[in-house]
Amino acid sequence: MERPPALDEHLFAADTKRILALDGGGVRGIITIAFLERIELLLKERSGRGNDFRLSDYFDLVGGTSVGSILATLIALGYPVADIKRLFIEWCPSIFRRPWLGIPFFSPRFSSAGLKKRARKVLQEGTLSTAPLKTGLAIVTKRIDTGSPWVLSNNPRSKYWDDPADASYLGNRNYRIADLIRASTAAPYYFAPKRIPISRQRGLFVDGGVSPYNNPSLLMLMLAGIRGYGFQWHLGADHLLIVSVGTGSYRVSYEPGFFSRNVSTLFAAQALRGLIGDNETLSLTLLQWLSAPDRPWEINSEIGDLAGELMGPADMGGEAKPLLSFVRYDARLEEKWLREACGQEVTRRLTSDYLAALQRLDRPDMLMEMYRVGAEAAAAQVTPDNFPSRFDQ
Predict the structure, then answer these.
(1) Distance between CA atoms of 113 and 118, rounded to whole angstroms?
(2) What is the pLDDT of residues 249-305, one digit of tens each?
(3) What is the tens place of the pLDDT at every residue in 193-222?
């Protein structure tokens, strides 16, 4: 299959580059979609192309972890956000469905059959080299039989793209995207791991959120700039824009007696949630330190939002310069933030049970409530100045 010229333009043209990075978060992916709607509307108006415009026209690389891998793939295929939203709402109830024969605490909480069926329906047997992708795509997963995070992209200049002469492994070009999505979304406790042929054997993969990259923004920066990954894009605030979109964040905390009252499986699942949150905070801290964004997020009470701080050689007499332009969109699923950021439709529901349900990643019945929070946050956060004109094609 011949590669479309537009795809090579996105991947290899020596120009400014734009990356869209999408977090993991289960059904809270609907919050991401609310932001994507707003971004698409803004960029559509700027492009002058009307309803022909797609996010895949603007972004040169779309990367995602877990549910973000689903959304990233649909964007890279050229789907409008309205269709992505419709599919997501249709899919969620069947994806988060308990298996008939599952044994509580010993079997995965949900069957993987629903996601597998829907991913195959959209992607069929499409691989990283044969699927009709309109722009760059990167999917983050974790290979647990070797203990290594994996990021797989449709970049034909990547080191492991082709099959080697000795047939010692399967080239990345042959990986079915439906399998990669299934692997990236295989959250421990919730879904079973995914086996994927990688050589004469199969690798065992789980959700990319188990790696440091549930927020894949930092990995996307490395993918763009580290020579070994094969992109070799120019870095600098005038050359690289990363737009990072969350699924709703909050600080994970528990009453002291929680762990003594629950079985070890639940203990492990909740501890993992806390680790994922810590990794997301680390990524956000580094990216804000490297980019000095115009609207930084508060990291914690000790270091604040790093306003006015930029990593670089300024303390040695040199001039610190941003490594990229960076903007982060998200909603804080905490009572204080929601009361300050959202209108009455949200705040009048803010009981402790409602807030706990908003934070869950496996509550399809809360989709529209989550969407409402995301839409209000997007209306306040997504502005034209987040997309400087120097990045327009």
Answers:
(1) 9
(2) 998 766 666 555 555 555 666 666 778 888 999 999 999 999 999 999 999 999 999
(3) 899 988 878 899 998 988 999 999 999 999
Helix axes 367-381, 29-47, angle to 10 degrees: 40
Residue 209 · residue 64 · CB < 8 Å: no
Q: Which residues of 156-179 are buried (b: 16+ CB within 10 A; e: fewer)?
A: bebeebeeeeeeeebbbbebbbbb
What are the phi and psi torsion angles at 60 (to 5°)? -85, -20
Q: Token pair for residue 16?
A: 């400014």
How many C-beta atoms lie closer than 10 Å to residue 101's C-beta? Answer: 7
Q: Three-class SS of residue 361?
A: coil
Q: Return d(Cα 323, Cα 43) in angstroms, integer.
A: 24
Q: pLDDT tens digits for 227-245?
A: 999 999 999 999 999 999 9
**What is the separation of C-alpha 98 from the centre of its chain, rounded to a whole number of angstroms?**
25
For the question of whether the overall pTM of this predicted structure is more than 0.90, the answer is yes
- The Cα 18–Cα 310 span in angstroms is 21
